[in-house]
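Quick question, first post here. What does this chain look like in 3D?
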Amino acid sequence: MSESAITLYRLQACPFCERVVTTLEEYGIDYESRFVEPLHSKRDAVKRVSGARTVPVIVDEHTGVTMSESDNIVTYLENTYGEETPVTAGHEGGS
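> Answer (accepted):
Ran it through. Tokens below.
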């Protein structure tokens, strides 16, 4: 079973959702996209998962975390998965 551990609930062409997608791809994190209804009042799948109808929302099966708000999600992904990828900024040598 090679099902993705992270599910991303998102809208087509949503800049906040795209920011999360960029971060997921930057860190090489496997994820599954679930596109939600454009009409806010019809986003029942997101509401069942997160308690709200806003996107983006991620569900991380590895850690049991469900989270919304793109800033929070990006920070979570960096803190949880970022150390597995070489950091590109701020690396200084010297001892």
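The two ends are 46 Å apart (CA to CA).
The first strand starts at residue 6 and ends at 10.
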